[in-house]
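Repro:
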Amino acid sequence: MLKVFLVEDESVIREGFRDKIPWEQYGFQLVGEASDGEMALPMIRRMKPDILLTDIKMPFMDGLSLSEIVKEEFPGIRIIIISGYDDFEYARQAIAAGVDQYLLKPITRQTLRNVLLEMKEKIEQDAERKDYQLQFQDEMQEFEQFSLRRFFERLLDGKLSVKEIYEEAAQRSLELTASCYNLLLLSIYEKKEGSPLERREHFARKQEEVFHFFLRHPQYILFRLNINCYGVLIKAEEEHMEELVENALAHIRKVCIAEEECLEWYAAVGKPVSRLSMLPECYKTVNHYFAYRFILPHLHILSENSLSDHLSDSEEKNIGEVDFMQMDPEIIRDFLARGEDKEIHDFVESYLQNISNALKSKMFRSYVILNIRFAAVAFLESIGAKKEEYSDEIELAVENIHRDESEVFAYFVGMLRTAMRIRDQINSYQGGKILKRALEYIDANFDRDNLSLNMVAENTGASANYLSAIFSQGMQKTFVEYVTEKRIEKAKRLLRQTDRSSGEIAREVGYRDAHYFSFVFKKLQGCSPREYRAEKRK
């Protein structure tokens, strides 16, 4: 129900409004009343009503003064002035104060009812428009993030020439010109999945606090790499690069250290390069450092300096000095749960580097191989893999592990690849079922104007974040792109086959705003709906 606050100095009139108007029947709740503006103001600040119903002439503070103050503090509030003065100057001042209606006494019950219902309709339309704008902003942001992710994936994999990099950057309004570049990789996620809503919302706020720092400064470009991993391109003059890197790490550290009970975080920084064409080399370096988050989980900032400080002593270890905590099978299981195929070589290299001297011992090699095997098998069993899916490959590899230490590396890589392949098959099967349900739901509901990723996720039993990831991976387009294409295809058919107006077609395919529909149509088709219809009917 919408909340109404009443201000009237004449007690008889005030009591009449209070007692004789069936507020709840009209969809309202009278939350408070006062005899003048001075008494009303603190109560209005506390109750935050949707509608203020006030007399214009009152002692201490009149209705116009009250309206000006309230409208400035609460721009969305609707104000109805009640006046016994049919005076143009009063009406002009009321309009200047942002008043919505100016009613002359005496006021009939029917007149007030009609005005209140009119206010109610406007408030609901404003709320609907605001929801739609928020949905539009979310959709555009998702589309832009996915587009940016694809751009950086190709850039960092070395698949774009310098000319193509600048052309695609210009399309996305990205300014990349600088004399020095570096990359920062950031992983931030909840320690416990399935935590209460309040804790998840707290985590989301902290994540946004980290990201907001990069969005505020043009020297940083934030982009997503996968579900839990983000990248930051740092661009600057060479003499400022070190300061920018330190500022970024200091901010991440400040936010995350205070929240380590509920979140896990790691940040890796590469080596600066002087050309955009050298970013794939920078990415290779920082990705290698990033792999150490599985080996050294207590080390949250991963860079050349931090790793060299940590590894300088460990490289000399023999079997008696090996830190077996760094060989915890949980490290391997954690990597198999969250790592990617392209990280395998760096992870194995990082893992074995700490025990490279000890691997000269045949007995120790046997221990390491068994440790790897048990960790991989335990992980596969935990995700529901069937033994026949992996036993042959694992047992065959175990038979040939004692020849020399180089075979340990090859075995480790092969074992991880086998486990990840099975993991991805299981995830693909489960994700495929969810994606199938999602597509069926979208195909049946794409023309609903309130359709959202959250709504589809709720109806498919998945989180919005997971659904977004498997949707873009499986369909090679975002949720928004897919829904938009469905809507525009239906709109094209209606434009060809019917005489309905663009506004009618917009509503039928899921757009409340005809102007936004025309904007999207022209962006995808290169012409307006009217031009499309005229061309097809020639």
